[in-house]
Amino acid sequence: MEKIGLFFGSDTGCTEAIARLVRDLIGIDKVDVYDVYDIKGDEPEQYTQLILGLSTWHDGQLQSSWDDYYSKFHDLDFTGKTVALFGLGDQYGYSTYFCDGIGVIGKLAEKNGAKIIGNWSTEGYEHDDSKALINDDTFIGLCLDEDNQEELTDERVHAWVEQIKKEFGI
Ligand SMILES: Cc1cc2nc3c(=O)[nH]c(=O)nc-3n(C[C@H](O)[C@H](O)[C@H](O)COP(=O)(O)O)c2cc1C
Hints:
By secondary structure, this protein is an alpha/beta fold. The protein has helices at 14-26, 64-73, 100-111, 150-168; strands at residues 4-9, 31-35, 49-57, 61-62, 82-88, 115-117, 120-121, 133-135, 138-139, 142-144. It starts with a strand and ends with a helix.
């Protein structure tokens, strides 16, 4: 089986921990994990199935490694690729920018040809707005809130990984 490429960026380690959990749940031998801090080129184009993970900082800004990589990412061709996204944020502290990062990155990947999977219900979250929304009831990907709902993370990640495994067809 062709491997999945998982690309994450993390300022304080929360997204990194989730990236490793997602990899472990899918299968350590099935996923190549990259810290976006370490990539400079078109590494994501080597994969047809991708998982992208990032946190949001400073009122809706991309996590710093993704922010640095953004101009390169902007020009990647996602034609024929399937992409799932997970994001971390703080729904109470940054209620109008909750998990904006995956909205920005996911919608750009979609514009550049990706099929997006792993959409996630907004049920159980309290936020005023988010660029991660694709409609009133649905986020583009899994949103996690380690600042306020840490106790829900494990269950959410397990359910989401089962969902994307089906959607990836693995
Ligand atoms: C200064 C600061 C700004 C933040 N801005 C946002 C934001 O705009 N939107 C959001 O959803 N979360 C925001 N957060 C919350 C972080 O995204 C959250 O703590 C996340 O778990 C950090 O993950 P990381 O360690 O992988 O970078 C902010 C946190 C801090 C400390």
